[in-house]
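Sequence of Sulfur transfer protein SirA (Oceanobacillus picturae).
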Amino acid sequence: MEVNKVLDAKGLACPMPIVKTKKTMEELNSGEVLEVHATDKGAKSDLTAWAKSGGHELLKDTEEDNVLKFWIKKA
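Predicted 3D structure, token representation.
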């Protein structure tokens, strides 16, 4: 999967992962992919809901060594 930008939101508590994701997503063009790394357990439900509400596509999410990783394609 081609990633256009990586956002490191590790160590940030809600709502900062969403705030930073939204700000970074504004820098991307439609169809580009943002990879987000977060450690806040709430980020999974928050980012999933945020992507859906914004019309973006959550391509994949995984967890490695307590780091949640998300790949979001911009609408």
